[in-house]
Specification:
It comes from Helobdella robusta. With 338 residues, the chain is mainly α. The protein is built from eight helices and no strands. The chain has a domain of 119 residues. It is rod-shaped, with a radius of gyration of 61 Å.
Length: 338
């Protein structure tokens, strides 16, 4: 392996010049080990400005959408939410007390810069590596296409640059002209097919086609998952709607039945109250009549007793008068009251 090849391999594959066979297939997390926490004395990485409320990762504005990554999988660490990088919380963390607490917890430095761990650095390095490879692949395809076009144009210019006299002489002999033109046409066709085959058999083209195929499969799977999810959500909504309608109907029927039952109970209660009231009135009137009749009997009895007493007293008075008159008059005389 030459130095130029080693430099290219180090540039494109992310491996050192003299690497072990296993090193080529290791992920970046294994090449740069990730610690669970960033302690004092461990490497602290600062990319970009690193201020609170801003992202430390530098992104190219023209590469926000990558054709080789339609699902946005190879992106910097901004996919994970970090409150220290939220621009809406910048004023909140600008408080001196909050900054002092963040510095005590080891989340920021003395200068107020955010701390990025090695895992985030590895993800950012993989993103830059993939972006660089995409640009280099595009340039390589453009160069190969330009070389193929240049070769075809050169062959066509050679075919058109035949002397006019030679052309006329060849026209005189139809067999020789036909043979020469057929051979030239076959040569141009072979050159074009060879250029296409060479381009299609290159590992870059195969890798590019495989990447496109994988991205299309992922995109197709994502669309299928979205369709299934939407169908499931629609089915759940329909089931929920039917459940709500059934529940509402049962509640309405129960409420209606309860209202009818309550009205019937009220009517029965009113009839019972009326019956009880009439019964009480009748009992009161019977009691009053009984009392009045009893009082009449008592009055009649008292009247009869009074009359009897009066008659007895009158009889006694008559007897006394008769006795008194008998005493005054002789026995031969008649008593005026006898």
């Amino acid at each position: 392996m030459t130095s130029g090849n080693s430099k290219k391999m180090c540039q494109f594959d992310g491996v050192p010049p003299y690497y072990l066979p296993k090193w080529r297939y290791l992920s970046l997390d294994n090449k740069l080990p990730v610690r669970k926490s960033v302690l004092d004395g461990v490497l602290n990485l600062y990319l970009g400005d690193g201020n609170i409320g801003t992202s430390p990762w530098i992104k190219n504005k023209h590469l926000d959408f990558n054709l080789l990554d339609p699902l946005m999988l190879q992106q910097p660490c901004d996919r994970e939410y970090d409150s220290l990088r939220d621009p809406y919380l910048k004023c909140y963390f600008a408080n001196a007390r909050h900054l002092r607490q963040l510095y005590k917890q080891g989340l920021i430095t003395r200068e107020g810069k955010t701390i990025s761990c090695l895992r985030e650095y590895n993800m950012y390095r993989a993103y830059i590596h993939a972006t660089n490879l995409d640009i280099i692949r595009t340039l390589h395809v453009q160069n190969e296409c330009e070389d193929t076009k240049r070769l075809v144009m050169t062959t066509l210019m050679k075919a058109k640059a035949l002397p006019k006299e030679d052309y006329e002489n060849q026209c005189g002999n139809n067999t020789l002209y036909r043979r020469y033109s057929d051979a030239l046409r076959m040569e141009i066709k072979d050159i074009c097919e060879r250029a296409e085959n060479e381009f299609e058999t290159t590992p870059f083209f195969r890798e590019y086609c495989e990447g496109e195929r994988q991205s299309l499969l992922k995109f197709r799977q994502m669309l299928l998952n979205d369709i299934k999810k939407k169908a499931l959500i629609r089915l759940q909504k329909l089931q929920q709607y039917e459940h709500n309608q059934t529940k509402f109907w049962k509640h309405w029927q129960k409420h209606t039945n309860s209202q009818v039952q309550n009205r019937a109970d009220e009517l029965v209660r009113e009839h019972v109250l009326k019956y009880e009231r009439c019964k009480n009135i009748k009992e009161y009137m019977d009691l009053s009549l009984y009392r009045q009749r009893k009082m009449g009997d008592v009055v009649q009895k008292g009247k009869e007793q009074h009359e009897n007493k009066l008659k007895k007293s009158m009889r006694k008075v008559g007897q006394r008068v008769c006795l008194k008159s008998q005493r005054q008059y002789p026995l031969s005389a008649t008593c005026p009251y006898s």
